[in-house]
Specification:
The chain is built from two helices and no strands. The protein has a domain at 32-70. 0% of the residues are buried. The protein is mainly α. It has helices at residues 11-23, 26-69. The N and C termini lie far apart (63 Å).
């Protein structure tokens, strides 16, 4: 099945989605949500590191330019 957002589904697809979600045990859904949360936290940490590196590079370039400017 092609992955659609819930807003793009027609009523039949939405009913099928709901039935499939009900078929998945609650504990399994909790585990899935926990994994998604962990993945999100991991990606946020990588993004934070990348932005910090970018900020340091921008600061160094700014310092180099201003040192030649004066």
């Amino acid at each position: 099945m092609v992955s659609l957002s819930i807003g793009d589904m027609n009523q039949e697809q939405l009913d099928e989605y709901v039935q499939n979600r009900k078929a998945i045990p609650l504990e399994e859904r909790k585990k899935e949500r926990e994994l998604t949360t962990k993945e999100t936290q991991r990606m946020n940490k990588k993004l934070e590191i990348a932005l910090t590196i970018l900020a340091v590079i921008a600061l160094i370039v700014t310092l180099i330019i201003t040192s030649f400017w004066t």
